[in-house]
Design goal:
242 residues; mainly alpha; 86% helix; globular
Length: 242
């Protein structure tokens, strides 16, 4: 007896649905691993920042000594070469780069415990978390291609870095710093959406376990950087000084 075309059509549809379900489940697992890595990185940064803040000798070296410049250059350098380290080095090197990045950021932002009240730090952290979640959700769900926006904002970060250095050494303007803070927050909010979309699109079910794990760590690395940057500059806008 010939197969009813309707049954054949149903079988094909069911097969496609099964594949889609597998991909969706795999994608959810992949994205969850990205966010888990990132959350652990943020927690580790907080622990390092607190440990540095409670050690007067290290705190002084970071706040007013040359150590802050070593950390600043280290953060920039690791961020610039992160892709090569994550995908060309060993799995242990990829993991190590992520945790080193989180640790350096923790030491670098430790002075904020003396600059802002504890209450305002907690408040701004949750504001940042909400803003990050919203922009990341948009990047995950939108059908719009954010590639062009992401490239533009990535280029804008170079201008931001130059503006930071100019204001730090030449202008020393509080008003300029406030305006720059707003720009930085907006730029990195946009980058968060773009990065989330790029991370989602990087998922491929056929990847080896090693490659998928590297992608997850790298995705966590870039999202973590955007989150911490947003937090620091939102703190300069909304934080209450000691």
């Amino acid at each position: 007896m010939a197969l009813d075309p309707r049954n054949r059509s149903y079988a094909q549809t069911a097969g496609y649905a099964g594949v889609d379900a597998d991909v969706d489940a795999g994608l959810r697992k992949y994205m969850l691993s990205v966010y888990n890595y990132m959350a652990l990185g943020v927690a580790f940064t907080g622990i390092i920042a607190m440990a540095v803040a409670l050690n007067p000798a290290i705190m002084q070296a970071v706040a007013i000594g040359p150590m802050k410049w070593v950390l600043f250059i280290g953060v920039l350098g690791l961020g610039f070469f992160s892709g090569k380290i994550m995908f060309s080095g060993s799995p242990a090197m990829a993991q190590g780069a992520f945790w080193l990045y989180a640790a350096m950021w923790g030491a670098l932002i430790a002075p904020m415990f003396y600059m802002y009240t504890g209450e305002s730090i907690v408040r701004v952290f949750f504001i940042t978390a909400a803003a990050f979640a919203g922009t990341s959700l948009y990047g995950y769900t939108t059908k719009k291609d954010l590639t062009a926006m992401g490239r533009f904002l990535s280029m804008a970060t170079i201008g931001i870095l130059v503006a930071i250095l100019v204001n730090m050494f030449l202008l020393k303007s509080g008003l300029f710093h406030l305006g720059l803070s707003i720009v930085v927050v907006l730029v990195f909010a946009g980058l968060t959406a773009y990065e989330t979309q790029a991370i989602k699109q990087s998922y491929f079910e056929g990847d080896t376990e090693d490659l998928q794990n590297r992608k997850a760590i790298f995705g966590a690395f870039i999202l973590y950087g955007s989150f911490v940057t947003m937090f620091i500059w939102m703190l300069s806008i909304f934080g209450s000084r000691e």
